[in-house]
């Protein structure tokens, strides 16, 4: 056997450097992250830089885009650019909170079911299947319709509580394949408790998969929230991209030819969700050696 025939084990630092090497060369990942970060920057910094509030009557109604009003005004004389900036922030908040809640629940149930197995797996799998077959949008419609005061936090909470089952099943399947590995058996024989084994041994080996799962939940939360906003069941205070679309539809922006009222929020939602999914495909190519472009 020669030196070239021996395979050197990869350390965590080597794996990270290799992932970064391919990440900076993956066009899909770079484009997706750039779009998301630009829109996130507008949503975070925009409300600080723009003057006025989103619902303030700041000018003449139905003004097309100009140097004074970058995205024009609606039929009430409200600045659409100001609404768009605030709407981006709200949209990202819903995606972060809703996706984060769903990710945490999915990880907890998926890890416990996959690692413990037996009756624990059966009970958690039964709960997952029950939530999975529920008509999510219908449940959210009923809940939101009967809430007197609807806020971004409440909306994100209910989205997170109903969006986790597919993530839990996917994480459970991955945990099943990892719990019989030698390093997990060694930790178990050493007397390490279950939570530490999951956090220190199993979860780090699934970090890339967990991150991609969160991205999908993030985008899914934004789509669900936008759907609720569009049919009039969004937050009762503030503004979001979905609420902008709902107002544009309600006040006949399409029939009046006010394209600058409904195009920006629709394009914003499409750009965020589309960029997240493109970035997710890029991450899959980075972390999966079979899909990497050398």
From TrEMBL:
Recorded topology in the membrane: Multi-pass membrane protein
Protein's cellular compartments: Cell membrane
Keyword Manganese among record annotations: no
Keywords: Cell membrane, Membrane, Transmembrane, Transmembrane helix, Transport
Residue ranges crossing the lipid bilayer per the database entry: 29-50, 94-115, 127-147, 153-171, 209-233, 258-283
Cited InterPro entries: BP-dependent_transpt_permease, MetI-like, MetI-like_sf
Occurrences of domain ABC transmembrane type-1 (ranges): 88-282
Pfam families according to UniProt: BPD_transp_1 (PF00528)
Family affiliation: Belongs to the binding-protein-dependent transport system permease family.
Protein name: ABC transporter permease
Organism for this UniProt entry: Sphaerisporangium aureirubrum
Native organism taxonomy: Bacteria, Bacillati, Actinomycetota, Actinomycetes, Streptosporangiales
């Amino acid at each position: 056997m020669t030196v070239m025939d021996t395979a050197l084990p990869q350390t965590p630092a080597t794996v990270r450097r290799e992932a970064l090497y391919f990440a900076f060369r993956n066009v899909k990942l770079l484009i997706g992250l750039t779009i998301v970060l630009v829109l996130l920057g507008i949503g975070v910094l925009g409300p600080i830089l723009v003057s006025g509030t989103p619902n303030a009557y700041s000018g003449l109604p139905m003004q097309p885009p100009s140097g004074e009003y970058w995205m024009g005004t609606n039929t009430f004389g409200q600045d659409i650019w100001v609404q768009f900036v605030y709407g981006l922030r709200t949209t990202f908040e819903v995606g972060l909170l809703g996706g984060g809640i769903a990710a945490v629940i999915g990880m907890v149930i998926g890890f416990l079911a996959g690692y413990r197995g037996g009756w624990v797996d059966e009970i958690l799998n039964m709960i997952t299947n029950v939530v999975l077959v529920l008509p999510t949008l219908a449940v959210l419609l009923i809940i939101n319709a009967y809430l007197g005061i609807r806020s971004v936090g409440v909306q994100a909470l209910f989205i997170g509580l109903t969006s986790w089952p597919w993530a839990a099943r996917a994480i459970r399947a991955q945990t099943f394949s990892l719990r019989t590995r030698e390093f997990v058996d060694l930790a178990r024989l050493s007397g390490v408790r279950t939570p530490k084994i999951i956090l220190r041994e199993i979860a780090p080996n699934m970090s890339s998969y967990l991150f991609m799962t969160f991205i999908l939940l993030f985008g899914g939360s934004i789509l669900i929230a936008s759907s609720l906003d569009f049919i009039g069941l969004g937050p009762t205070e503030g503004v979001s991209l979905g609420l902008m679309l709902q107002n544009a539809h309600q006040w006949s922006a399409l029939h009046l030819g006010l394209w600058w009222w409904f195009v920006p929020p629709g394009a914003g939602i499409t750009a965020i969700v589309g960029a997240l999914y493109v970035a997710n495909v890029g991450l899959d190519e980075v972390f999966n050696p079979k899909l990497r472009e050398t």
